[in-house]
Amino acid sequence: MSVDAERLAQEPRGFVVDLIERKIRLRAHQLYEQRGYVEGHAVEDWLQAESEVLETSILAPLYRRSRSGDQPSVEIESERSGSR
User: Would you say 79 and 29 are in contact if contact means Cβ atoms under 8 Å apart?
Assistant: First the structure.
């Protein structure tokens, strides 16, 4: 059994949130690249990416329930500064 499969069996909601956030983070970074690495749009990129990913994910309802009451975890700025 893989590490991800073991984690899914133990804590499915945490795994789903992590999986969806990885997809959102990847899409937000793609948007940042498309903009020509122009700073100052991290929240906009995150929200657009989140919208796009959740629009097509069958896991969206579980993600939304798991995240309700939480602030969006926008980590784009810190990742961008380290990825130049």
Answer: yes
Residue written as token pair 């969806």: 20
Mean pLDDT, 10 residues at a time, over the chain (84 residues)? 57 82 96 96 96 93 78 48 47
What tokens were used for 81? 């500064």
Cα 21 → chain centroid: 2
Token output for 84: 């130049």
> How far is the C-alpha of 74 from the C-alpha of 44, rounded, in Å?
10
Provide the token pair at 23. Answer: 């997809």
Q: State the pLDDT at residue 4.
A: 60
The Cα 77–Cα 42 span in angstroms is 6
